[in-house]
Automatic annotation (TrEMBL):
GO cellular component: membrane
Keyword list, A-Z: Calcium, Membrane
One GO MF term: calcium ion binding
Record-linked PROSITE patterns: CADHERIN_2 (PS50268)
Lineage top rank: taxon: Eukaryota
Pfam families in UniProt: Cadherin
Lineage of the organism: Eukaryota, Metazoa, Chordata, Craniata, Vertebrata
GO biological-process terms attached to the record: homophilic cell adhesion via plasma membrane adhesion molecules
Transmembrane domains' residue ranges: none
Cadherin domain location: 1-77
InterPro entries given in the database record: Cadherin-like_dom (IPR002126), Cadherin-like_sf (IPR015919)
Name of this protein: FAT4 protein
Length: 150
């Protein structure tokens, strides 16, 4: 947005939160996965950008996301001592911290908690984040190497 001040600040959102598989960083518009384990196919996400001016101008577009099935044996589970709703809200930061620590690109495959308590979204303080890591050549890093580096 070429405007200045509040008119130039854009906030991004998924319209009607159509899916639990994806979320969006409201400041950057980056779409990321929350949980796509065991899922494949094309997802159609309605994304809205809204400026913060008095008239709140908006624009919407459809983003097509294709998820390939994965049979990777290099998935690593990172256990965080945080409630699942906190991890889900901060997944972009979790990913960034893991990438800084590992010095590889990280793909978050799934975020989960104890399945009997998941409906409360905040009842347990332990969350599992399944990841795979990729090196500079875009090759999957073997799980034992990732585990040693975490």
């Amino acid at each position: 947005d070429p405007d200045s001040g509040d008119n130039g600040v854009l906030l991004y959102s998924l319209v009607n939160h159509q899916t639990n598989e994806f979320d969006i960083d409201q400041k950057t518009g980056q779409i990321f996965t929350v949980s796509v384990a065991g899922k494949a196919g094309t997802f159609y996400l309605e994304v809205q950008a809204e400026d913060q001016g008095m008239r709140r101008l908006t624009a919407q577009t459809t983003v097509n996301v294709t998820v390939d099935s994965s049979s990777s044996s290099n998935i690593v589970v990172v256990v965080l001592n945080q409630q699942i709703n906190v991890v889900e809200r901060n997944i972009v930061e979790v990913k960034r911290v893991l990438e800084d620590k590992l010095e590889w690109n990280v793909y978050v495959v799934d975020v989960s908690s104890d399945e009997f308590q998941i409906s409360a979204r905040s009842s347990t303080d332990e969350t599992n984040v399944k990841i795979t890591a990729f090196d500079e050549a875009h090759q999957e890093v073997p799980a034992p190497d990732v585990k040693r580096s975490v």
